[in-house]
Structures are given as structure tokens and as C-alpha cells.
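Example 3.2
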Amino acid sequence: MSNTNNLPLDGIRIIDFTQVMMGPSATQMLADFGADVIKIENPKGGDLSRTAFGATDEVGLNNPVFCSLNRNKRSLALDLRQDGNKDIVYELIRDADVVVSNFRAGVMDRIGFGYDKLRELNPRIIYASGSGYGPHGPYAHKGGQDVLAQAMSGVMMRRADASVPMSIYPTALCDYTAGMHLVQAVLAALIGVAKTGEGQRVEVSLYDSMIAMQMQEATCHLHSGKEINWAEMPLTGVFATADGALVLVGAFKANPLQDICNVLKIEDLSVDYPDLESQRAGKAYLQDRFRNEFANESTGYWIERLEAADLLCAPVKNLAEVLEDPQTEANEMIVEFEHPLNGQMQVIACPIHFSSIDCGVRLAPPRLGQHNAEILEELGMVPPAQASGA
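Structure, written as C-alpha cells:
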């Protein structure tokens, strides 16, 4: 376990109402940076990711999905409908720096924790909100979710070419991107408070984050009515090999098609397809030729030859291979710690590396309500029966 020595957010307190992935991925990174993140949870189940596999027992409530997103946090389990429990949270917020939530628009106001209310308690508070579509507009009150954001933002429609069926991207791309935007927003707002003494409201959404991710494509469309699509480049693609697959990016060279043909030991197709326009027109034929040749040898064989020709390429790996890859080990991207219920656990480490600080695990992902008594003692309060933890 690491400690808070030299961590940049040591001394910053964050009251965390988030759950599932977008918000927890943000507050976990802020916790990795040293913030004291107090996770507010419903005593009946807590964060929805605790029951991601339908778990109900104590060990199940600390399943790998939850543990992947909630290290270095403390859990305060309170039924906010019970008299006095809102006052506990209000008391925490009086001296806190940041409040983070990722509910749909209006929920925080409805449960008594809207921005205007909290700003009265603490003018320095940073009120950070993540949502599906933003606080205003026709979709503000719709439920936000990663797959829906892929569809609504245009990301799902974009694919290598029209022959490729539309599908769901199988990793939570929108949640993680918006979560990292939320981290940026909080850090910028903390700098603002240091300069002005005044807090502010900051907001991100899955929808906006996915539009921002398409900034190149969107700007081209806005100015020319045409969209660029890097995946449909004629010399770029994923090709099956004799024992797996590789990806090839045929670009950034004077005559990449000629170089590819040399690697494949076939005739120089750049004679008939000398420029990008002709290569686009002949994409189906070119890629069929590539596909037929790549299938004859192993991935390792082709990677060695492609790299020798200074062509951009990589093997297509599965997750198990990535986790065992020596580069993953060199980058220290897997961290181990002892969990009081799960025993020895491995999770993915913070992807940001500092030269003089350690953003490792200080606190194991908390059991539901694990820190109730500790936090209430810090406030000088006697724990009410309904706040005694789980």
C-alpha cells in the first residue's frame, strides 16, 4: 500500500455521489492523486456496480467490477430519506472541496443536494456533474448510458465502410472518456478556486465527450459537408494470418503500396494504383490481395517483415495476451493489493506516471459503509442507528 506523501491532491476532500463507471472512474483517478474521496452509498446495495453480477452477499458486493473503479475511497452508507442523514452529508460538504455526481438532470436537486443549496453551505465548493446529455436541452432528462451515447453521438454509425454491420463497441468508451473529462474539469476548477476563492459548477456529458472525440471528422463535415474516415483508408486494415491477425496502416511513406507489395512478394500494384484516388477506387481488390497473402504465414512472420520495411503494423491481441505482455509489466499497469474479503487482488493501475510520487493503492476498495463510524467520529457525531454501516 502506498501513502499520501507528496500526492498532489493530498488535503482535498471530495464527496462522491457517483456510481457505475463514468463518475467512479473520475473519482478513482482523483483519489489516486491523493484526494480524500468519501463515497456516499445507499445502505441497500450501494453503488450499482456492487451488484453487477447479481451479487447480494458481502463478498459479492465487492466484486471485480466494483473493485476496478473504487480503490483509495472511503464508503459512507446512509439512507438519505432518514431524518438527520442529509445533515451528515451537509456537514461534510461545509468543509469539502468538490462534490461529484453522475445522475440525470434534476436528481441531485430532488434529493436535496442541488448546486444552489450546496453553494449556500460552502461558496468554495466545486460542483462537478456528469450526465448522459447535459443539464439542458431536449435530452437532458433522458437516462444516459454508454451504448446509448455511442448511438446518439454518431460514433456507432461510423465504421470502416458501409459493408461492415453497425455494432456496439464492447468497452465502455463513452463512460471512460467522459470520466477523464470530468477529472480535467475538477482539476481546472481547483486551480480556479486557488486563484479566486470561489467555487463553480462544472459539467460534462457522455454526449459532448463523444462529439469532442470526433473533432476532426466533425470539423471537416461542418466546412465541406464531407466526413473523413481513417478506417476506410485503402491500405489500412485488419488481416487474418495463419495463426491470428494483424493490423496494417499503409500510410506516411512515399509509396507505401510498393513497400507492402515487396513485403508480400507480389507484383508492384502501385504501377496500376499510383495515387490515393486510384487506391480508393481499387480498395476491394487491393485488400483481397493482401488478405490472401497474409493468410499464408504467421503473425510473427509478417510483423517482422513489415517492421523491417518500416511499415506501421501490430499484432491483434486478446485481453489475456495484453495483461501478460512485457510492455504491460514494464509500464507497471497491474497493481496488487490485499483485500480484506477477496484476498490478494490485481487491478489496473493509474495510467498516469509521475517521476516523484506514487499513485498506488492506499485503501482497498471499500466494503459498503466500511467507514461510517470513522467519518462520523471525524465530524464529532454519534452514529445514528441507520448510519452504522454494513
